[in-house]
Amino acid sequence: MDDPLRLEVVVASTRPGRFAPVVAEWFLRAARADGRFDVGVIDLAETPLPPELTETPEVEAYRRRVAAADAFVAVTSEYNHGYPATLKTALDTAKREWRAKPMGFVSYGGLSGGLRAVEQLRQVVAEIHMVSIRETVSFHEAKRKFDAAGETSDGAAIDAAERLLRQLAWWGRTLRAARAADPYPG
After folding, report:
1. What does residue 49 show for φ and ψ, rounded to 5 degrees?
2. Is residue 186 in some structural domain?
3. Domain ranges, residue 145
4. Residue 119: is it exposed, middle or buried by C-beta count within 10 angstroms (0-12/13-18/19+)?
5. Which domain CATH number covers 62?
6. Is 165 a member of any domain?
7. Most-buried pick from 69, 117, 133, 138 (CB within 10 A)?
């Protein structure tokens, strides 16, 4: 169980001109610098998941990838006080593959910083038998928080990312060991 945890970072926004890559790349740098994780990216703009939840070869590949992961972080914007529909499709496309795994959140937006989207996502994550990580990284007025190189000096966000990764590693190790010792009864 000393192997790095497989962390998949799910980039939720698929809108043209989206700001998601800036936020995601910043978080990915932090996660990849943490030796507890082997980090991958599931960018929903590049992952063809049918909204009607039909079976396709891409859906099967996606489910295998979700099943192989130990932990997840969703990088999400907030649209109209909610999270992107593409993220709901991504969550609904898999089922048992999510169970007994932790999910953290990095959100961004205007004044709320995406926190309303995260609070809704916590309900969905609980329903699919995941553990929601308490610490959240949130960027209020996100476009003002990053420089041209995609870096931020937002101390609260930097500190929150460190705490999120510590909590995610604990839950990831704990749940991986539990799943190995006694498969989740879902």
Report:
1. -110, 115
2. no
3. 5-181
4. middle
5. 3.40.50.360
6. yes
7. 117
- Tell me the Cα Rg of the chain: 16
Residue 60 backbone phi and psi in degrees, to 5: -60, -40
The confidence band for 117, taking pLDDT boundaries of 50, 70 and 90, is very high
Instruction: Return d(Cα 80, Cα 23) in angstroms, integer.
Output: 19
Residues 14-27 have a mean pLDDT of 97
Letter for the amino acid at 118?
Answer: V
Q: Are 12 and 84 in contact (CB under 8 A)?
A: yes
pLDDT score of 61: 97
Check if the beta carbon of residue 96 is closer than 8 Å to that of residue 66. no
Q: What integer is the mean pLDDT of 114-124?
A: 97
Task: Determine the distance from the C-alpha atom of residue 141 to the mean position of all C-alpha atoms in its chain, rounded to a whole number.
Answer: 20
User: In the numeric block, which tokens belong to residue 125?
Assistant: 């994550």
Q: Encode pLDDT of 70-107 as tens digits.
A: 999 999 999 999 999 999 999 999 999 999 999 999 99
Q: How many domains does the chain have?
A: 1
